[in-house]
Design brief:
By secondary structure, the protein is of the alpha+beta class. It has helices at residues 8-15, 82-97, 128-135, 140-159, 216-220, 227-243, 252-261, 275-284, 296-304, 319-328; strands spanning 39-40, 43-51, 55-62, 67-74, 106-112, 115-121, 126-127, 162-163, 172-176, 184-188, 195-196. The protein folds into 2 domains: 38-121, Phosphorylase Kinase, domain 1 (2-Layer Sandwich); 126-195 and 208-305, Transferase(Phosphotransferase) domain 1 (Transferase(Phosphotransferase), domain 1, Orthogonal Bundle), CATH 1.10.510.10. Helix 1 (8-15) packs antiparallel against helix 7 (252-261) and helix 4 (140-159) runs antiparallel to helix 9 (296-304). It starts with 7 loop residues before the first helix and ends in a 19-residue tail after the last helix.
Length: 347
């Protein structure tokens, strides 16, 4: 597939996409759904907290350790789909690799008669998506703090050999913490579409992810992405935190094509945004991965060193201001950017 076009196949997949991506499951057998009070392994299910295409999340009691946990159960409709089951169990493997306070802690995983489960910390707070639904957009200093925390956590993931590939506000959880600049601590959830450097669970000719936050290269193929794809997704999220909307909206086919061919919008055209933050977001949204920041560590450092007190100083920026911003971030755009070498995968 040419890098200069979005194939009709990808557009067709977008039109038929489900809420969590472009993948399509084969026929599945009728399944029995878990319910509060049921016991799965050593866990007694409590209230259902959330439900997505591939999983249901319950509060649960760990009967062995007498503690409350969150347990994610594979949607029974997919229990007999080996590809979906493999991706579900890969989430536990991917999450277990990452040791960082900004990534949810995986406690246990296993299979039972009729499905599979992952046990995690039970968190108290709300998703970033819920926060955006309530507030519309965030103050620039709050947005920068949250994005900086996300970048730090994803840098740890990348160093552990894990790419997220489905970063979006729904997968970012906010826990109240007055010690943080933004008043919240970030926890990244749902590594269900993560790509391990071993590549054992990569599905050829498949495109997975959430279109509004997917990089152009991920729109073409989920198997040819590196850490810079997650950087693009974080750029989309940071754009939304500042402006109240993602950079591209519309039907799925239009969004996919815009990621590939659409003009990169500047946040300062829609909301108060400093020249330095404006330029950084535009760089993160570059169509060519080689023109983005090279690593999440670079993004974290750039966010952490933005001029304090000037994050929302102007509604629009001049070309001279943009040039100045580019000048103070030279490390972010090398002549030829290459992805950081990751350590060998854990056996």
């Amino acid at each position: 597939m040419s890098d200069d076009t979005v194939s009709d196949e990808v557009i067709g997949l977008a039109l038929d996409a489900g809420p969590t991506g472009f993948d399509h499951d084969g026929p599945t057998q009728a399944a029995f759904y878990p319910f509060p009070g049921e016991q799965i392994g050593r866990y007694i299910l409590g209230d259902k907290l959330a439900q997505g295409s591939f999983g249901l999340v319950f509060a649960a009691l760990d009967t062995e350790l007498d503690r409350q946990v969150a347990i994610k159960i594979l949607n029974p409709d997919h229990a007999h789909n080996t590809d979906v089951l493999g991706r579900f169990l890969q989430e536990a493997s991917a999450t277990a690799r990452i040791v960082h306070p900004g990534v949810v802690t995986m406690l246990d995983c296993g299979q039972y008669d009729g499905g599979a489960y992952i046990a995690m910390d039970l968190l108290d707070g709300c998703s970033l998506a819920a926060r955006l639904a309530e507030d519309g957009r965030l103050l620039p200093h709050d947005a920068v703090d949250i994005a900086c925390q996300i970048a730090s956590a994803l840098d740890a993931a990348h160093m552990a050999g894990v790419l997220h590939r489905d970063l979006k506000p729904d997968n970012i959880f906010l826990i109240p913490d007055p010690a943080m600049t933004s008043g919240v601590r970030v926890k990244i959830l749902d590594f269900g579409l993560a790509k391990l450097e071993t590549g054992r669970r990569t599905l050829m000719h498949s495109v997975f992810g959430t279109p509004r936050y997917m990089s152009p290269e991920q729109c073409r193929s989920s198997t040819s992405v590196d850490a810079r794809s997650d950087i693009y997704s974080l750029g989309c999220i940071l754009f939304e935190l500042i402006t109240g909307a993602p950079p591209f909206e519309g039907d799925l086919a239009a969004v996919v094509e815009a990621h590939h061919d659409g003009e990169i919008p500047r946040p300062s055209s829609f909301a108060f945004c400093s020249p330095h933050l404006d330029e950084l977001i535009v760089m993160m949204l570059a169509k060519d991965p080689a023109r983005r920041p090279v690593t999440m560590r670079d993004v974290e450092r750039a966010l952490a060193t933005l001029p304090a007190g000037r994050l929302g100083s102007s509604r629009t920026i001049t070309s001279e201001q943009a040039s100045t911003a580019r000048g103070i971030l030279p490390i972010m755009r090398p002549a030829i950017a290459t992805p950081r070498r990751l350590p060998p995968p854990v056996p």
